[in-house]
Write a structure and sequence with these properties.
12 helices; Arc Repressor Mutant, subunit A; 2 domains; mainly alpha; elongated
């Protein structure tokens, strides 16, 4: 890609993130973006049809990368023995997704933040649920999760837990390293709320 194009794309992206920190996307205009990026409107329209195309470009790029990670490296996920056998206690897909979030930290932070786009999170949640369902079908011959509580509630606990960890990381004043976040995700996959409350530790000490 031509150096000038790369520089312009970088300026637009930097301006977009800065503006999204200050106000919701719907309140941001193309004029705001061009002024913050230090470019004219004509230059912006050479790259994007409008601000919605810009947002779609950023979101689709991130979703497509995460989708590719799941398609390529989700096969061994949800099998405890796999991690024990290989000595790799972080599933590849977890490491790759966390690595992408780290590389695009500021973009994920504004998209998931209070001025961000709820549709982006919904799109990712839908993709993750579909990937887990497909894997469950391969392992169990069905996509149903636990029968102890209604399916929708079980899925909400499974999916929201993962996203909450990432969003907590993004909003942290002193963000942990990607390696630490990977470890947190892996540990919480095998801990119940009872464990997280420290009740099992208390029982063991009695």
């Amino acid at each position: 890609m031509h150096k000038k194009i790369v520089e312009t794309e970088g300026s637009i992206k930097k301006a977009f993130i800065a503006l999204m920190r200050m106000k919701p996307f719907e309140q941001i205009s193309v004029r705001d973006i061009t002024q913050a990026a230090g470019i004219n409107r004509g230059t912006f329209y050479l790259h994007y049809a409008d601000k919605y195309a810009l947002l779609e470009h950023y979101e689709d790029n991130l979703v497509s990368q995460i989708t590719a990670f799941f398609r390529a490296d989700f096969a061994d996920t949800m099998i405890v023995a796999t991690a024990e056998r290989t000595g790799e206690m972080t599933y590849p897909v977890v490491r790759e997704v966390v690595g992408l979030v780290a590389a695009e930290f500021d973009m994920f932070k504004v998209l998931f933040g209070p001025t961000g786009d709820p549709r982006f999170e919904f799109q990712l949640e839908k993709m993750v649920r579909a990937s887990i369902s497909e894997r469950l079908n391969q392992l169990k011959g069905q996509v149903a999760v636990t029968t102890t509580i209604p399916q929708d509630y079980a899925w909400e606990l499974i999916i929201s837990g993962l996203f909450s960890i990432v969003k907590t990381w993004l909003q942290s004043a002193n963000p942990e390293s990607p390696e630490t976040v990977c470890a947190i995700i892996m540990k919480t996959r095998f801990l119940s709320p009872y464990d997280l409350l420290g009740m099992s530790e208390r029982q063991e000490s009695l």
